Amino acid sequence: MSFRTTTYVEDVSPGRGALPPRAWYPSSDAKSLSLNGSWSFRLSATADAEDDSFATEGYDATDWASVTVPGHWVLQGHGSPIYTNHLYPFPVDPPHVPTDNPTGDHLRRFDLPEDWPADGEATIRFDGVESCARVWLNGTELGEFKGSRLPHEFAVGHLLRPGGNVLAVRVHQWSAGSYLEDQDQWWLPGIFRDVTLLHRPTGAVGDFFVHASYDHVTGEGTLLVDSEVAGRVTVPELGLDLATGEPVAVPVEPWTAETPRLYDGVLATKGEQVPLRIGFRTVVLEDGLIKVNGKAVLFKGVNRHEWHPENGRALDLATMREDVLLMKRHNLNAVRTSHYPPHPAFLDLCDELGLWVIDECDLETHGFTEQGWRDNPVDDDRWTPALLDRAALMVERDKNHPSVIFWSLGNEAGTGRGLTAMAEWIHGRDPDRLVHYEGDLGCRDTDVYSRMYAFHDEVEQIGRGLDGGTHKRRELPFILCEYAHAMGNGPGGLADYQELFERYDRLQGGFVWEWIDHGIRHPELGYAYGGDFGEELHDGNFVCDGLVFPDRTPSPGLVEYKKVIEPVRFEGDGADGTVRLVNRYDFADLSGLALEWAYQVDGETVEAGTLAMPRPAPGSSVDLKLPEPPADGRGGEAQWTVRAVLAEDTAWAPRGHEVAWAQLPVTERVKPTVVPAAAPVSGERIVRLGPGTFDARTGALLRVGGVEVSGPRLDVWRAPTDNDDGAEWQTDLRYGLLWRKFGLHRMQHRLDGVESGTDALTVRTRVAPAAWEIGLDTVYRWTTDGDRLRLSVSVTPQGDWTVPLPRLGVRFALARADAVRWFGGGPGEAYPDSKSASRLGRWDATVDGLQTPYVRPQENGARADVRWVELGGLRIEGDPEFWFTARRWTTEQLEAARHLTDLTPGDRVWVNLDHGQHGIGSQSCGPGPLPQYFLRAEPAEFSFVFSEVR
Ligand code: IPT
């Protein structure tokens, strides 16, 4: 029977042979057999290199390799992953694909379990195969399919036998379907989701649609289960026992992402019982707003790709659960499943733990933008059946999830009739949900005006309704389906977006791009990114732009986001001890939370306690009086820290988990004073001033007491962040590049004079780059009170500065330092527009622990608002507060590194004490820092007091 037809690979049709789509459920009382595990595997270089005799009975595959299913063969030693953002890694000539088309033949032998019923039917379901597969069972062809992140089910009952079944699957990396799957991610072929044999008893459940709505006026839920096969629906907790197709109204507690109330039920037909998890909720577009259960909601969302650093898009349940738990613990309430339907179990978790979901179809044709969208499949009727197939596979699979409130047509696919056809079909099939698509500026097919990476000022215009647009669009609410590009250090500017979302009703929030860095664990590189596998075309570390690192450690960006979107806000005046507590939930009261306070002086808690948590309704506030400050609590810099923590264990975090906090200053900091009390004493080649020893010729500090110090001197350079560098298509000024152009990474220090005065040592310099007339006149003035050494730096810019400074401060090296203590912002890093989560306190760390491991090394690890820091035997106090950074390599080494493994500790610790840092923004795919976070080259004065810690 061998023949070599591969025409289906380039066929625009969705495939043939599969059963009609239906609702997905994790289990029922019908038997099933997982076919996951080790499969025999053979890789060929082209689609037709081998005939299909491997699918025939009795084929001997003993010399084949093996792969784990679910999995991607390129992550299991066969071939390599490729990363491109939107460029197709093959010539654009739809529907053709390259002759070089890695093709993985997969074989799986299985026996039926002893108790497998003799009667009934059976199906085999593939939950995800990239990108095109042809399937045989026991030598008989079942069909072929495309649609990588969608389920495909085949009837197999007539072919099954008790033992020695052989399932053969031929998977092609490239197919016509690849043109529809141009998402910004690794190209990863393989059978990457579960394969399951399902028994279908006689009279089994077919497709079914649970309609569970909630009337917020009457408090009643209405349940109607439409079922292809008639049966009964029982919900014991509600005392319900009714026929399918029959509606019933009962008082219920509604489902929301904040209060994910589910009722367990059963759908029973003659042959099968399927567990139901029913959430009653009603989603409407009303008064130009997205309302659930009668209330407008605010999305505090994130875009989630499926990612695991070893297994790619083959995710296990524990990893999916970890994602949802991490989201809940960081105050997120929404997820867009960018850019394809996730593993279906992920949606079960969203139902159970509570997240609003935009379920997005597996569709992106972004690469056509390079040819002005010519030949775009979504505007070509030949492709419309494939698009409708994808829409149906998604909607039918996921329609019973209360968490799903939006269907999204796809991402970055331009516009076209095919999209309209999808939207029409979806609206018709499921009128009880809304339709999202970002690419259609006129909102012809959608129920929400959605954009990505719009700048703050434009978002504000939209909020005020001044953005114009089509008549239809003007009536619609607005979301940012992507914003705050979390690539590398950042995003900056989150708080400023949130402030807009809260100010204007029309703005219903957004979804940060994106959840996780798609770094691939690599033996030499730590985590690999685009280009690390020798791809001829790639987009580098643009694939590492998540709020969590590849191993799911939260990055500072996630900690920042958690703070910015916290559902309880405290506003007040620490000095008079009043706090206004604002409930920023959309639905929940604050009964799940407890209120804790601490009174702190100079960062140390003097007294702490709890207060009764008031119960303001969602959206309202209550004024509270804090206790009397402790009598001995005056003197230093005092503040209140108030915290809202979980009062009890929840499904997603234990009791005591912090949800929100604030600090209210009571008394101001006392700045360090050093009254000059000694004159510099010149010796041979050195000058002494109090505890300081200086080089007489250069004026450089050599020692403070017994601590060796090199420097300090002026430093303006930071290893540019991805957001400093910006994206190549950015029309805004890309300062990372301009800073290099103007030589800020190679500033020269000219010594103009070292002057010993009566009470000071003064060093005059000009710090400037070769080739340019811009410069910074810098004067270091050293004084001492005998014990401590004060450095005052005064900086006066010269020339025409057209760029801001990356940083402004001093850098020096210490011979050794490990433990670090400080009083200031912490515990994590912060930058001017990403410092909401930095809290004032006493913190301890090590130099290594101060580093933030961005997958591509770049500026990181600054601590904000530092009053004093101790390390390496030195104590440094700042006037004013400063930014502190310490690392075991120089900025130049940090900048040169491509991967974390390029960074090796040197024999010194480099310390930066900064008066200012430039903001971070999110220009790697969005706006740069807002003007208020610019570090402009302006006259500046700042000082540090050094002493030896004994
Ligand atoms: C946008 C894409 O939708 C998303 O998949 C990702 O590529 C993101 O950018 C950047 O990481 S599209 C872009 C042109 C704004």
From TrEMBL:
Keywords per UniProt: Glycosidase, Hydrolase
Judged by the first EC level, this protein's enzyme class is hydrolase
- Which SMART domains does this chain map to? Bgal_small_N (SM01038)
What the entry lists under Pfam families is as follows: Bgal_small_N (PF02929), Glyco_hydro_2_C (PF02836), Glyco_hydro_2_N (PF02837), LacZ_4 (PF16353)
The answer to whether UniProt assigns keyword Hydrolase to this entry is: yes
Catalyzes what? Hydrolysis of terminal non-reducing beta-D-galactose residues in beta-D-galactosides
UniProt-listed Enzyme Commission number(s): 3.2.1.23
GO terms in the biological process aspect are: lactose catabolic process
Please provide, alphabetically and separated by semicolons, the GO molecular function terms listed in this UniProt record: beta-galactosidase activity; carbohydrate binding
Q: Where is the Beta galactosidase small chain/ domain?
A: 686-947
Note the superkingdom of the native organism: Bacteria
GO cellular component annotations, sorted alphabetically?
A: beta-galactosidase complex
Q: Which PANTHER family match?
A: BETA-GALACTOSIDASE
Q: Which family does it belong to?
A: Belongs to the glycosyl hydrolase 2 family.
Instruction: State the protein's name.
Output: Beta-galactosidase
> What organism is this sequence from?
Streptomyces davaonensis (strain DSM 101723 / JCM 4913 / KCC S-0913 / 768)
Organism placement in taxonomy: Bacteria, Bacillati, Actinomycetota, Actinomycetes, Kitasatosporales
